[in-house]
Amino acid sequence: MSMLLEAQDMMYTYPSTDRPALNGLSLAIPTGSKTAICGHNGCGKSTFFLHSNGILRPQSGRLQWKGTDYSYRKADIHALRQRIGLVFQDPEQQLILNTPYEDISYGLRNAGFPEEEIRRRVEQMLVRMGLTHLADQPIHHLSLGQKKRITLAGILVLEPELILLDEPTAYLDPKSEVQLLEQLDRIHAQGVTIAMSTHDMNLVYTWADWVIVMDQGRVVLSGTPLDVFQQTDTLMTLGLRIPMLYDLWLALPESWRNGAAPPRDMEAFKAWVSTHHILQ
Ligand SMILES: Nc1ncnc2c1ncn2[C@@H]1O[C@H](COP(=O)(O)OP(=O)(O)OP(=O)(O)O)[C@@H](O)[C@H]1O
Ligand SMILES: [Mg+2]
């Protein structure tokens, strides 16, 4: 398996704090993967993302893109950001222009695309993200979920080699979440690697093909979803939820897994779910 982005023993402490936010972080994002990064509030997910596109620089340890150490020369960082797109956790930190249309075009214009191509791509992305009706609204009039969708569109439209999404589904309603996941699938099918941080373990289970679990600035588990979710004790100790579908699958009677039908009566099924503590 080749690795697109690799961190080795990274340390980072924010100025004026005394606890490291990254404390010997070593992880790898496989090329072509759909990687989910999970872990508690404050375990260092956003700090890792800010390192990945060169906004922060590790105080020790190393970070590699396709096997080569990061260079922090201005031109190299600029080039790296064309290849690695980061969608911030907080959309307010990312939106800079007045309207969604202007903001989504900004990265393409910066990268020197011709006006015709910019218009084509932005209009297509507005449709795909269900944002057409908001295209010319003042951004400061929009809701947090709408702002988040604009920042997502602004990165997806650039089609970088690696897309990093910091809690992309936070603030999104179910319809917007489906739209986002459809766009991610479309882009992933074109060969783009995607890594997202999320607290939604059900999304991790259904979406990811590679899972990284962090705690206190380092990685505690990483591997395929099955490898990771089999470590139920570690996940429980960390206070993380076991995905509902995985829990349900484990709890199914052997006969159901082998094709026997579950109860047809929904109340009986609900009673069965509650006696097996699946939703707790
Ligand atoms: N700008 C900052 N200045 C000082 N400390 C910070 C700053 N940003 C984050 N930290 C600290 O660094 C640690 C890691 O924070 P980080 O935001 O990376 O966690 P996270 O895993 O993204 O959390 P969440 O799930 O809440 O988004 C935390 O202890 C946090 O308090
Ligand atoms: Mg965060």
Can you characterise this structure?
The chain has helices at 45-52, 74-83, 100-110, 115-128, 144-156, 174-189, 201-207, 225-229, 232-237, 244-251, 254-257, 266-275, and strands at 3-12, 22-30, 34-38, 60-65, 68-69, 84-87, 162-166, 193-197, 210-215, 218-223. The strands form two sheets. Strands 6-7-8-3-9-10 form a six-stranded mixed β-sheet, with helices on both faces. The protein is globular and about 60 Å long. The longest helix is centred in the middle third of the chain and has 16 residues, at 174-189. It has twelve helices and ten strands. The structure holds adenosine-5'-triphosphate and magnesium ion.
Q: Please tell me the total number of domains.
A: 2
Strand order within the widest beta sheet: 6-7-8-3-9-10
Order of helices and strands: EEEHEEHEHHHEHEHEEHHHHH
Q: What is the CATH C level class of the largest domain, in words?
A: Alpha Beta
Mean pLDDT: 91
Uncertain runs with pLDDT below 50, 5 residues or more?
A: none
Overall 3D shape: globular
Number of helical segments with 4 or more residues: 12
End-to-end gap: 36 Å
* Radius of gyration over all CA atoms, rounded: 21 Å
CATH A-level architecture of the largest domain: 3-Layer(aba) Sandwich
Main beta sheet strand tally, sense and closure: 6 strands, mixed
The molecules bound to the chains, other than polymers, are:
adenosine-5'-triphosphate, magnesium ion
Number of strands: 10
Q: Look up the CATH topology of the largest domain.
A: Rossmann fold
> Considering the protein shown, what is the CATH homologous superfamily of the largest domain?
P-loop containing nucleotide triphosphate hydrolases
- Portion in strands: 15-25%
